[in-house]
Amino acid sequence: xxxxxxxxxxxxxxxxxxxxxxxxxxxxxxxxxxxxxxxxxxxxxxxxxxxxxxxxxxxxxxxxxxxxxxxxxxxxxxxxxxxxxxxxxxxxxxxxxxxxxxxxxxxxxxxxxxxxxxxxxxxxxxxxxxxxxxxxxxxxxxxxxxxxxxxx
Length: 152
Fold this sequence. Notes:
Radius of gyration: 19 Å
Number of helices: 3
Number of strands: 8
Strand content: 25-35%
C-alpha cells in the first residue's frame, strides 16, 4: 500500500484541483461581518445587534485557532488530524474501499476504509463540503449511516 502516515514536510506535490477543509468557517464569518455592516448602514436602529455580530465574527477570525483538517487533490486525500501535529495520513484514491460520515452530538466523524482492512477516522464539523468533494473523487462509495440526527 502506498497510503501511510508521513511528515507534512514530505507531502508530494499536489497537482490539479485542490480543496481544503478547515476548522474555521472563514466565508461564513466574513458574511456575518458584511451583513453587520449592511445592518448598520441600512437600519441604524439595529446598531447594537450589528456591532455585536461584527465584533463576534472579528474575534473568531482573529483570535480563535484555525488549522487544516483535510486536503483533497486529484491523486490523493490528506488527513491532518494526527496525534503528532507534524504528521499526516496520505491516502491514495485507488486504495479507498468506502467512506462514511457519522453524526455525533459533540463532534462528527469522517471514516475512510482502506483496501488493507484498516480505517482512518477524523473529527469533522461540517458535512456539506466533505460529501461534495468525496462524491467528486469517489462517487458511489459512501456508506450511509444508520444513525439519524435527532432534534430535541
